[in-house]
TrEMBL record:
It comes from Cinchona calisaya. It catalyses: S-ubiquitinyl-[E2 ubiquitin-conjugating enzyme]-L-cysteine + [acceptor protein]-L-lysine = [E2 ubiquitin-conjugating enzyme]-L-cysteine + N(6)-ubiquitinyl-[acceptor protein]-L-lysine. Its EC number is 2.3.2.27. This is RING-type E3 ubiquitin transferase. Pfam families: GUB_WAK_bind (PF13947). The keyword NADP does not apply.
């Protein structure tokens, strides 16, 4: 009897040790707690399931990544049902405010904006001003540095620069003789072009 209870204690202790040693953050990342969980844990595959959409993973450079899948805009649903993946490198998690500090976005989010429904996700870009604006994209053959032009590096090439401008500004002030209009996107959170690192907020 003594032996059995000793064994049970040992097993429980071993289980706690295993849980404790299973790293629940990436080496350079924030502590990962509920509702987040760490994917791809080789040693504890049984723990690799959790709240869907809240799985984080570690990159080869030990950063913490959240992958969000955005559905296509309603107007494109007849053409594609594929989800668009965007990966965010997470610097900090504020569990009290339910927000994530994003240091970089992997991939070209501004290029996806015409196609994705940015609001069909449990995470929203925090916007200190509550400002959502329509933006117009321009493709320019000259480099410009006006403060209201947001340079989209990942869409630009050495000979053509792509800029996004709040459509309300564009309407009256820009002599864009060397630029052609590409498209307009309604309801873009101000933070998306103006602040990276930025905050993603759980809603
Ligand atoms: C910008 O315009 C040039 C010339 O028409 C074109 O080659 C290039 O692909 C355009 N860039 C984008 C991102 O559409």
């Amino acid at each position: 009897m003594m032996m059995i209870s000793y064994l049970i204690r040992l097993i429980i202790l071993a289980a706690f040790a295993a849980l404790g040693s299973s790293s629940n953050n990436c080496p350079h990342g924030p502590k990962i707690r509920f509702p987040f969980w760490l994917k791809d844990q080789q040693h504890h595959p049984e723990h690799s399931s959790g709240y869907p959409g809240f799985g984080l993973s570690c990159t080869q450079t030990d950063d913490t990544v959240l992958e969000l899948l955005f559905p296509p805009k309603a107007s494109l649903l007849s053409q594609t049902k594929l989800l668009f993946s965007v990966k965010f490198v997470i610097k900090e998690i504020d569990y009290k405010l339910q927000s994530l500090l994003v240091s970089t976005v992997d991939g070209c989010l501004p290029a996806l904006l015409p196609n994705i429904d940015l609001f069909a996700s449990p995470f929203h870009f925090q916007d200190a001003y509550g400002q959502y604006d329509e933006y117009t994209y321009f493709n320019c053959s000259t480099t410009r540095s006006d403060y209201y032009l947001n340079h989209i590096h990942c869409l630009s090439t050495p000979s053509y620069q792509v800029y996004a401008v709040q459509s309300s500004i564009e309407a009256f002030s820009i002599p864009l003789f060397s630029c052609t209009k590409m498209f307009q996107i309604p309801s873009v959170p101000f933070a998306l072009f103006h602040f990276i690192p930025t905050l993603l907020e759980l809603v």
